[in-house]
Amino acid sequence: MKTLKLHFVLFLIIISLGACRNSLDVRIRNTPPTLEEIVAGYDIWYVDYHRTIGNNDVPFVSKAFTLSFLNGILYANNNIADIGITGNGLGIEVGNYATFNGVLETNHILDGIHDFEVTVISPNEIKLYNFRRNTSYFLIGYAINNFDYDTLFYENIEYLLQEYQAWEKTETVGGSSNPFDAENYLQFTPENNTTFYSSKSAIGAPISAIDWSYIGTYEIFDIIGFENLKFLTLNYDSGDIEEFELTVIDDNYISLYNVNSKTTYKFEGLGFIQYKKSSKNSKKQSNSLRNSNRKRTKIHRKQLHKR
Fold first, then answer.
1. How far apart are CA 256 and CA 172, in angstroms?
2. Residue 282 in 3-state DSSP?
3. Pairing relation of β-strands 125-130 and 112-122?
4. Which among 115, 93, 118, 96 is positioned nearest to 105, based on CA atoms?
């Protein structure tokens, strides 16, 4: 009988301890994460600029494609080319940050101090609200190994085109003879998202010696049903129009398929333009700081069906 009573008492103790532990686990799980845990919870935060709310901006956020918050250091990827390489994916160091009383305090090396109220939208999405500028930014969190680089390239294709001083034709495949065969260089200036230049200078010419004889406006369209394909039109001031299907090969090469001649052209970016200070981890050297004040704008593309 004593043995049975002892076993019964031990059983009650075990049950009681288990209940206490479960109760503690519930309390731990129900404890909300700190703001530091939230912003440092992902390697990089993609700035989904097209969803930005407000007519003003916080300059360093408007320039960035991704932001990272790590041990008090603020990082940014201000370039698409080299993203994933520069700073081991984090980008360049642009300042520092702190979290205090639910506020994200940032101190950018050029733009100074800006504070943000942080709202958690979903497990990997936050909203940063700057009350002084009355502007909200939406950020999506990723582990570096899971970041969707293809989406980044195609959602911001205009900016990738601007990040080189020139695009040099390296290959021509198939198709019928057409005037564009003679054009060896393209340039898309960052001062706006509509101007391009073209040249017939010989392949291998120094960038400084390229004769930009042709100028016009360009427009990029979304192709319905295709996320990794764009449609590019070059509207020359002379009245000529060239139309291409645009594919990103990687952050240094693009492919243009002429829909009229059925010719495919491969172009390589030359003269990488580093926005902000250069990074020793970058695989390319900065050749220019052209328009270092470049900011992203909301891009509303027209849509068309694949031809």
1. 10
2. coil
3. antiparallel
4. 115
Interatomic CA distance for residues 211 and 195, integer angstroms: 16
If you ran DSSP here, which 8-state letter would residue 143 be given?
A: -
pTM recorded for the entire structure: 0.79
* Chain segment 246-293, per-residue pLDDT in tens: 999 988 999 999 999 999 999 999 999 877 543 444 444 444 444 455
Q: What is the pLDDT of residue 164?
A: 94
CB contact at 8 A, 180 and 261:
yes
Dist. CA 232–CA 306, nearest whole Å = 12
Angle at 206 between CA 203 and CA 210, to 5 degrees: 75
In this structure, the strands spanning 185-188 and 195-199 are antiparallel
Contact 199, 179 (CB under 8 A): no
Amino acid at residue number 52: T
Cα dist. 269→17, 49, 215 in Å?
A: 66, 25, 19
pLDDT tens, 68-111?
999 999 999 999 888 888 888 899 999 999 998 889 999 999 99
Among 292, 294, 291, 274, residue whose Cα is nearest residue 85: 274
pLDDT of residue 37 exceeding 50: yes
SS3 state at 274 = coil
Q: Which of 1-15, 113-127, 291-305 has the highest mean pLDDT?
A: 113-127
DSSP single-letter state for residue 53? B
